[in-house]
Amino acid sequence: MKAIRHFQTITKHKIYVMRECFRVGLYRQGLLHDLSKYSWTEFRIGCRYYQGTRSPNNAEREEKGYSSAWLHHKGRNKHHYEYWIDYNVNAGKDGRILTGMKMPVRYVVEMFLDRIAASKVYIGEAYNDSDPLRYYENGRAGELMHPETRALLEKLLHMLAEKGEEETYRYIRREVLRKKEG
After folding, report:
1. Using N-to-C axis directions, what is the helix angle for 2-24 and 147-171, rounded to 10°?
2. Over 90: is that where the pLDDT of 176 sits?
3. How many other CB atoms are there within 10 angstroms of residue 73's CB atom?
4. Which of 134, 137, 140 is nearest to 119 (CA)?
5. How far is residue 132 CA from its own chain's centroid?
């Protein structure tokens, strides 16, 4: 039964992200989003630790001290800032061995939309536009995310909380995704 429920949850999430990506013009990313969750490496862990109210990766992490499914997932999905962590070429100057690389804007947008979809799946009918920001603020992303990546993600999360989806998505289409990436 857990396998069916987990499949339903990840599929619902994937459909939500796809729908949101299509709204801003990221068609390819919408179609390909999170396909690795259907791989045996990630799917079996999701089934084993399925709870329905949060990511199974958190439950695996609590039991084992790490999540093998997450390590697999983040290494294959460019919309996770963890995918972009690399050795710091300035490690001798600032003391940080690992650091976040600047993410291409289209993946920052997908990360933003992923947070919205996850909130909608796990919160359900009680979801409101400030939930993704609240979830982000309770996390630990700050220190390893590239400053420009973090600034854009936070700008979009605050805009969503204050102005809603329509205005935020319009801004993404007209301003964020129209600018050429350097």
Report:
1. 70
2. yes
3. 23
4. 134
5. 10
Residue pLDDT, tens place only, 46-83: 999 999 888 899 999 999 999 999 999 999 999 999 99
pLDDT tens, residue by residue, 2-42: 999 999 999 999 999 999 999 999 999 999 999 999 999 99
Residue 132: CA count within 13 A, CB half-sphere = 23
86-123: per-residue pLDDT in tens? Answer: 988 876 666 678 889 999 999 999 999 999 999 999 89
Alpha carbon 141 to its chain centroid, in Å, reads 11
pTM for this predicted structure:
0.91
The residue ranges of every structural domain in the chain are 81-176
What backbone torsions phi and psi does residue 153 show, to the nearest 5 degrees? -60, -45
Side-chain half-sphere exposure of 174, counting CA atoms within 13 A = 6
Bin 155: left if φ > 0, else alpha if -120 < ψ < 50, else beta: alpha
Q: Where are the alpha helices (DSSP H) in 53-137?
A: 56-64, 68-74, 91-94, 105-123, 131-137
Contacts of 90 (CB under 8 A, 6+ apart): 96
Token pair for residue 167? 């205005």
